[in-house]
Amino acid sequence: MKLIDSHAHLTSEEFDQDRLFILRDLSNFFVEAVVNPGTNLANSRANIALAKDFDNFYAQVGIHPSDVDQMGENDLEEIERLAKEGAVAIGEIGLDYYWTTETKALQKEVFIKQLEMARRLDLPVVIHNRDATEDIMEILKDYTDLKVQIHCFSTDEKTLETYMDWGFYISLGGVVTYKDGLNEKQAAALVPLDRLMLETDSPYLTPKTFRGLRNDPRRIIEVAQKIAEIRGQKLSTIAKWTSKNAKEFFNL
């Protein structure tokens, strides 16, 4: 059995002391590969550099919505250049109105520019959405030609049905193990196996068993086990399909 963590922030500072050890240790936890989103230009550069050194690490590049107000004038041009060096997706991109709504207009502008970039480069996109579902869907309805992963899905069944109609993929993480993760549990039950992926979003969203500790990709089996339980399916089935989907989506 092999698992793929389709979304982990291993280049964040929380892993500065043991990043390389974790990457070398993944196979001991049935983890075949990790896909790492970019959040800003510096982080995207680090992703590309690390991907050149580790065969089980894959880089995304992008500007996270919470980082748009820190962008330099040429950051998007540099992101596009980096993408051509071997990025497997443009991400994570999207909208986040949880922390502030003052940057709404800029977030939308940068989001659309990166969607257009993905279209030019024929790359998939990984979408971040927090408290911005209506605007996210209004924008994405014009980009259903792209391969889209909705990272850390947390909205309602109606939204899920629309995403399925548009051909999008859904990625679920540690929240599916939480008592209050009702939308995530519902999605775990409803998403077709051929559209489902696993993620840790580490160092965040640690599964219930380890809550309070830093999360890392070696915890992905906790997510897989919970989804298998919810669906009434074998863990090996969840592993097989979610890994297959990640490989095809990101062209690993």
Describe the protein:
This protein has 252 residues and is α/β, with parallel strands linked by helices. The chain has helices at residues 19-25, 41-53, 75-83, 104-121, 133-140, 157-165, 182-190, 220-231, 235-250, and strands at 3-5, 31-36, 57-61, 89-96, 125-130, 148-150, 169-172, 196-198. Strands 1-2-3-4-5-6-7-8 form an eight-stranded parallel beta sheet, with helices on both faces. Helix 2 runs parallel beside helix 3 (75-83) and helix 8 packs across helix 9. It is an enzyme of class 3 (hydrolase). It holds the Pfam family TatD_DNase. It comes from Anaerococcus kampingae. InterPro entries: DNase_TatD-rel_CS, Metal_Hydrolase, TatD-like, TatD/YcfH-like. GO terms for molecular function: hydrolase activity.
Contiguous uncertain segments of 5+ residues: none
Task: Quote the beta fraction.
Answer: 15-25%
Spatial strand arrangement across the major sheet: 1-2-3-4-5-6-7-8
Number of helices: 9
Rg result: 17 Å
GO molecular function: hydrolase activity
InterPro entries: DNase_TatD-rel_CS, Metal_Hydrolase, TatD-like, TatD/YcfH-like
EC number: 3.1.-.-
Keywords: Hydrolase, Metal-binding
What's the structural blueprint in terms of helices and strands?
Elements: E1 3-5, H1 19-25, E2 31-36, H2 41-53, E3 57-61, H3 75-83, E4 89-96, H4 104-121, E5 125-130, H5 133-140, E6 148-150, H6 157-165, E7 169-172, H7 182-190, E8 196-198, H8 220-231, H9 235-250
